[in-house]
């Protein structure tokens, strides 16, 4: 593949140069007007620049000139890109350096030199990005020819469930490396291979364990993810199923409704509830529950963009001892928002993930994406509003099977 730049006084002149040099099979990548160099550029009409390319092995109809020709490898495509587009980029870069220091003759001339250099630099970056996209498109087309229909089906399923492109591309490359054409035709082999790959992206689930000696769980997360209801579910299960003595603490005094909701749950379950108004009160509240097996701390539903409230939360967590932290994220949250949430809670050294509202979405890819980038284990997932039923220990196998096209995540019976 050759990529070249042609400049003419008019569009017709530039196109004629393309046709004369590359022939009728040339592909036009970009056309634009550019200013002439130096002071002349201020007083004359702009030139027309045309960037064009041609694939010597493909005719204008898209049919190979030699039907027996072997399709070029990815390495060959890369070399062509480097030799063709790369040489032109180097030429542009050399032109940037050639502009040199501006003359000190007068201010106007200095400004002209500066603008010329900035213009060339802008042209350089635009063309580099454009050529990169061309190379990526050719590379993707080449890779797709090496994938079977079975593989494409599963990759499409992952994309439909909003698994991040980075993960999908990693899986695609590994499949091309590990499975030959024959194995790619087997649905069972392809599915099992992808299943094993996805399993490595997720740590084993880590629910709360009384054997570790910790007795405090602090539940954090942005507003609207269902923290209060989740705490009620955990408390009810610990009391009714585990037969443990539980105490509740809430620092969520920003919303009266949240306090009243947790108070109602505490009365139904039969566990005490303490309300604290400052981070410094948490130690006394915990100490008052010294006879309890487990203490659950509900924090305010803060916006992940509220820096002041996040600092308050940081103080709250530092004041506690022997605790576990669960970062609650709704499965309905966009992955881009999840990234911002994770960044804003980066002051946490150790925490577990807890995903809510799996019943409200089919895009389970966000669960895998978050587990992949945080390298943190998942503790629990919730699948509805019912207390205490709609919560269970996370099951990586069920999550992965959903991502591979099985029925949606349902509560275990």
Write the layout of secondary structure elements.
Blueprint (H helix, E strand, L loop, with lengths): L1 E7 L2 H12 L4 E8 L12 E8 L19 H10 L1 H15 L7 H39 L3 H12 L4 H14 L8 H14 L15 E5 L6 H14 L5 E5 L5 H14 L3 E3 L6 H7 L5 E5 L8 H12 L4 E8 L4 H10 L7 E5 L8 H10 L3 E5 L8 E3 L2 H8 L10
Parallel strand pairs: 4-7, 4-8, 5-6, 5-7, 8-9, 9-10
Antiparallel strand pairs: 1-3, 2-3, 10-11
Helix pairs in contact: 2-4, 3-4, 5-6, 8-9, 12-13
Which descriptors would you attach to this protein?
413 residues, alpha/beta, Rossmann fold, 3 domains, eight-stranded mixed sheet, three-stranded antiparallel sheet
What does the model show?
The protein is α/β, with parallel strands linked by helices and 413 residues long. It has 3 domains: 2-145, no CATH class; 149-200; 210-403, Rossmann fold (3-Layer(aba) Sandwich). 46% of the residues lie in helices and 15% in strands. The protein has 14 helices and 11 strands. The chain has helices at residues 11-22, 74-83, 85-99, 107-145, 149-160, 165-178, 187-200, 227-240, 256-269, 282-288, 307-318, 335-344, 365-374, 396-403; strands at 2-8, 27-34, 47-54, 216-220, 246-250, 273-275, 294-298, 323-330, 352-356, 378-382, 391-393. Helix 3 (85-99) packs antiparallel against helix 4.
């Amino acid at each position: 593949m050759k990529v070249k730049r042609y400049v003419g006084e008019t569009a017709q002149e530039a196109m004629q140069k393309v046709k004369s040099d590359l022939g009728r099979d040339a592909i036009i990548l970009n056309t634009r007007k550019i200013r002439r160099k130096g002071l002349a550029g201020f007083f004359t009409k702009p030139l027309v620049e045309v960037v064009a390319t041609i694939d010597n092995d493909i005719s204008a109809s898209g049919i190979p000139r030699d039907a027996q020709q072997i399709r070029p490898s990815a390495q060959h495509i890369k070399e062509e890109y480097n030799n063709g587009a790369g040489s032109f980029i180097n030429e542009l870069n050399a032109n940037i350096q050639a502009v040199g220091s501006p003359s000190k003759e007068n201010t106007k001339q200095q400004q002209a030199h500066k603008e010329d250099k900035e213009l060339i630099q802008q042209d350089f970056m635009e063309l580099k990005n454009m050529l990169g996209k061309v190379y990526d498109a050719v590379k993707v087309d080449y890779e797709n020819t090496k994938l079977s229909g079975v593989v494409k089906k599963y990759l499409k399923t992952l994309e439909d469930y909003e698994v991040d492109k980075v993960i999908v591309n990693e899986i695609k490359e590994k499949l091309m490396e590990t499975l030959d054409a024959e194995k790619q035709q087997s649905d069972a082999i392809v599915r099992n291979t992808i299943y094993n790959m996805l399993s490595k992206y997720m740590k084993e689930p880590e629910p709360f364990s009384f054997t570790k000696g910790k007795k405090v769980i602090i539940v954090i997360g942005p507003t609207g993810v269902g923290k209060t209801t989740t705490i009620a579910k955990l408390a009810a299960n610990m009391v009714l199923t585990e037969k443990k003595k539980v105490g509740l603490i809430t620092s969520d005094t920003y919303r009266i409704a949240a306090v009243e909701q947790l108070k109602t749950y505490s009365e139904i379950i039969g566990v005490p509830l303490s309300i604290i108004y400052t981070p410094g009160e948490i130690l006394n509240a915990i100490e008052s529950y010294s006879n309890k097996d487990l203490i659950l701390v509900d924090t305010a539903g803060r916006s992940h963009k509220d820096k002041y409230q996040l600092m308050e939360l940081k103080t709250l967590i530092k004041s506690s001892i022997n605790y576990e932290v669960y970062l609650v994220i709704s499965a309905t949250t966009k992955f881009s928002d999840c990234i911002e949430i994770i960044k804003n809670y980066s002051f946490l050294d150790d925490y577990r993930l807890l995903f809510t509202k799996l019943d409200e979405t089919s895009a389970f890819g966000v669960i895998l994406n978050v587990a992949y980038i945080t390298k943190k284990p998942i503790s629990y997932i919730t699948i509805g509003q019912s207390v205490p039923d709609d919560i269970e220990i996370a099951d990586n196998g069920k999550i992965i099977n959903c991502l591979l096209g099985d029925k949606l995540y349902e509560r275990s019976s």
